[in-house]
Design brief:
The chain is α/β, with parallel strands linked by helices and about 210 residues long. Strand 1, helix 1 and strand 2 form a beta-alpha-beta unit. The protein has one domain: Flavodoxin domain (Rossmann fold). It is globular, with a radius of gyration of 16 Å. The longest helix has 30 residues. The structure holds flavin mononucleotide. Flavin mononucleotide binds next to helix 1 and strand 4.
């Protein structure tokens, strides 16, 4: 049976969305069943309209389904993506995470694989701190965090073992091949480790 991966992301101007698509590609190529879901937009329409890239991206992704708690419950692995906001995850993603209390209370978020990716305007603008902040949520859920590490040679080019990331110069640059390779690797690695984990889990339960 295919491993079930939920890729849940927020993106205002599309950079994180492009990374999410590459994560999806990597996971699917590794045999996973993937749900790619955006979180609900919280910003007022006037704020969105004040930035043409933001407004265009909202329309571009209008057919992508919004993440629900059912998606989380369904998933064997959850991969979260967000732009860096002052070194932290976006409020939109955080709001979704804050809605998971009931599921968490029922123990339904425990023992899932977790992984995170991000984009930021500048190289030292908080890509690692954003991923690490998301990982705090995974600890509370009782997740098994799977980071890309330096598990393939390409990771020495992307240079971020915490999770895929891209420096967008405030959305002026689209993710390049190096960043897309890192994002595909993250999706693939999560799919493979999740498959191994599920086999081990089944064998252990049978024993
Ligand atoms: C309110 C706000 C805060 C931001 N904070 C940071 C930051 O701390 N560091 C950084 O490098 N970029 C920061 N950025 C820039 C975005 O993280 C960056 O443009 C990102 O690539 C946007 O991703 P998106 O296209 O998926 O929305 C900020 C942007 C906004 C609007």
């Amino acid at each position: 049976m295919a491993t079930k991966i939920a890729i849940i992301y927020y993106s205002a101007t599309g950079t994180t969305y492009q990374l999410a698509k590459s994560v999806e590609e990597g996971a699917k190529n590794a045999g996973a069943e993937v749900k790619l879901r955006k979180v609900k937009e919280l910003a007022p329409q006037e704020a969105i309209d004040s930035n043409k890239d933001w407004a265009a991206h909202k329309i571009e992704t209008q057919n992508i389904k919004e993440a629900t708690l059912d998606d989380l419950e369904w998933a064997d692995a959850v991969i979260l993506g967000t732009p860096t906001r002052y070194g932290l995850p976006s409020a939109q993603l955080k709001q979704f995470l804050d809605s998971t209390g009931p599921l968490w209370g029922e123990g339904k978020l425990a023992n899932k694989i977790g992984s995170a990716f991000t984009s930021a305007a500048t190289k030292h603008g908080g890509q690692e701190s954003t991923i690490l902040a998301i990982n705090n949520v995974f600890y509370h859920w009782g997740s098994i965090i799977v980071a890309p590490g330096y598990t393939e040679g390409s990771q020495f080019e992307s240079g971020n073992p915490y999770g895929a990331s891209f420096t967008s110069n405030n959305g002026e640059l689209d993710p390049d091949d190096i960043a897309k390779t890192a994002a595909r690797l993250q999706g693939k690695r999560v799919a493979k480790i999740t498959a191994q984990f599920l086999v081990g889990k089944e064998q252990h339960q049978e024993a």
